[in-house]
Amino acid sequence: MENETKKDIMFKRMKEKKKEVKIVRRIVLAIVLIVLIGGGITAYSGYKYVKSALQPVDEKSEEIIPVKVEIGSNLDSIAALLEKNEIIKDARIFKYYAKFNNESDFQAGDYGLTKSMTFDELIESLKSGKVYREPIFSMTIPEGRTLEEIAARVEEKTSYTSKEFLDLVTNPDFIDQMIAKYPNILTEDIKGPDLRHALEGYLFPATYAYYEENPSLESIVDQMLSKTANTMAQYTDQLAEEQKSVHWLLTFASLLEEEATADTDREMIASVFNNRMEKKMPLQTDPTVLYALGEHKDRVLYDDLEIDHPYNTYKIQGLPPGPISNPGTQSIEAVLNAPESENFYFLADKEGVNHFSKTYDEHLAKIEQYLR
After folding, report:
1. Is residue 107 part of a domain?
2. Structural domain of residue 167, as residue ranges?
3. 82, 85, 213, 261 - which has most CB atoms within 10 Å?
4. Does 152 score more than 60 pLDDT?
5. What percent of the chain has pLDDT over 70?
């Protein structure tokens, strides 16, 4: 009986051991399958990434991006430079592509490249020392221009009239289309009843390149809005953190663009405006009066300050309803990087140098000192 019991026990243990082996085999098989599947997914993801990185960053972009390749630059540094300027998506992929094709004899120099260029076009440009794709014409829109001034520039450089341009950018249907296309920058804010023009301030100042003789008017405006959208993308997180909108930023920055006579003064002028708004003081900036008047004047008169208009910051508190021109990057960043100060006043002397004051008495004294 005792022997039978021992046999039973041994038999039972053998069955348990076989069962454990089966379980272990299943677990190992499951792990192998998971690894294979994971490896396949990783490989496929890697394939998709590389395939995407080999394509132009933006096939429709016509913006010329200046790039300076220094003497002595190697493939690594050139690839990093192209990625930094967002002309390629991944420096490593470009570097491997160039090496695989035995391309390395690149020339130093100043280049005008675009995000729509392929790797082969970029390599050809860098080897020849010149732009591979040369635009048929280009158009520069400077900082601080109103829609009317941009319209005049478009008339000068294209076959379209100023009126045709203004008719398009003020067309409600076109504006709705652009709001739908660029919801990150264009919101219902641009439809405010007091705004003179919905797209005022949203056509970014830059040099635009065109690769066809007669680009459509819609594509010209779209390109400028695209540039604004790309520029604003880098400030998204900060605006969200400060609970501010793109419309607020462009409106504020447009005042700096018109007021600043020197780049170094923009941040301090922004500080003055911040202080005045915090104290519920009117901004009292002359460019808003000129915008309200709809004309350029060398000197703003006291009678002009009395105009009853939603853009007249001598009459209203805070910012005007919208931008008064198209601000550049320096003015935009000055708004976001304005320092804290105790200044509430500033004036520009006869040489255009700005002087800041903490009190109204100081401000009056500086008027006597610099303007009388």
Report:
1. yes
2. 137-232
3. 82
4. yes
5. 85
Any bridge partners for residue 228, and if so which? none
Residue 344 sits in the same domain as residue 242: yes
Does residue 277 lie within any of the structural domains? yes
Q: Label each residue of the chain as H, E or C.
A: CHHHHHHHHHHHHHHHHHHHHHHHHHHHHHHHHHHHHHHHHHHHHHHHHHHHHCCCCCCCCCECEEEEECCCCCHHHHHHHHHHCCCCCCHHHHHHHHHHCCCCCCCCEEEEECCCCCHHHHHHHHHHCCCCCCCCEEEEECCCCCHHHHHHHHHHHCCCCHHHHHHHHCCHHHHHHHHHHCCCCCCHHHHCCCCCCCCCCCCCCEEEEECCCCCCHHHHHHHHHHHHHHHHHCCHHHHHHCCCCHHHHHHHHHHHHHHCCCHHHHHHHHHHHHHHHHCCCCCCCHHHHHHHHCCCCCCCCCCHHHCCCCCCCCCCCCCCCCCCCCCCHHHHHHHHCCCCCCCCEEEECCCCCEEEECCHHHHHHHHHHHHC
Number of independent structural domains in the chain: 3
pLDDT the model gives residue 121:
87
Which of 165, 199, 232 corresponds to the end of one domain?
Answer: 232
Q: What is the CATH number of the domain that holds 86?
A: 3.30.1490.480
Whether the pTM exceeds 0.85: the reply is: no
Please write the tens of the pLDDT for every residue from 81-107.
999 999 999 999 999 898 888 887 888
> Do both 241 and 365 map to the same domain?
yes
Looking at residue 12, its pLDDT comes to 55
193 shares its domain with 223:
yes
Q: Note whether 255 and 224 are same-domain residues.
A: no
